[in-house]
């Protein structure tokens, strides 16, 4: 006889923890002095407005999947697992190698993760944290046991190198994390994600999709490059990230002072300073690497997390707050027990 749904035993929900991290930055360094040659700008102007000193630029034949695979290998080694144990790969990116198949499938091939299901997450700079929460849900309901989440972007491939307001901001790179259930750990305690499509045009790439295909007639119009309303993006970034941070803190009955380390999206030092002021915590509580990486989109918070973990910024049992903002607009926050 067939069992009814009520007769099929349900598995208890599990927590999901980050058990390993990794990151990768390309070798080429593009300094502010280098940019002074490309566009009308200055080192002082860039530093004052963004806090960025330099950024990494991927090679011509170095694609998003290549960077993602290197970050994945570092995370796998750090977690002490084999690649065969990975049963799901999620890649947050807005610069996929190809429209399809997914960059996650390319990564699967590059690292030999033959047992993994693969797909991409397009949430711009929020992509990694969206991916972490998707992994959390799959692990919690026992669909998958070991998940590789990657944030990776080659923004140099879509930046308009004639636009001084945007080309100074962005860099390339990848960050990765391995998630699985860990006994006696709360892991991902809570996550808040949100979107507001009413602000889709403040940070976007208008061309290249089915709405505005790139043709011989419009190829010189830079429609396949990143475009940003800087003032509005700054305003919405601070507002959205603060809202997301306060929501997860309130859920857990925590104050900002209870958090060992805040890892924010690495977009602009002024945004982070505004958050520190509103949270009433010192800047030393934030892990910041935008001065040497720039804004690497979905990779930014993942790279910063790996750097912070490897430098000993926190220990097992400490509470972390990750908070991000991206085009869409999208935003997310998570409180994690390390």
Fraction in beta strands: 15-25%
The whole-number mean of residue pLDDT values reads: 96
Cα radius of gyration in angstroms: 20 Å
Given this structure, which CATH class of the largest domain is correct?
Alpha Beta
Overall form? globular
Q: What's the number of extended β-strand segments?
A: 13
The largest sheet, given as strand count, sense and whether it forms a barrel, is: 5 strands, mixed
CATH topology of the largest domain: Peroxisomal Thiolase, Chain A, domain 1
The secondary structure category is alpha/beta
Within CATH, the superfamily of the largest domain carries the name Thiolase/Chalcone synthase
Unreliable segments of 5+ consecutive residues: none
What string gives the helices and strands in order? EEHHEHEHEHEHEEEEHEHHHEE
What is the CA-CA span between the terminal residues?
46 Å
Q: What is the domain total for the residues?
A: 2
Count of helical segments? 10
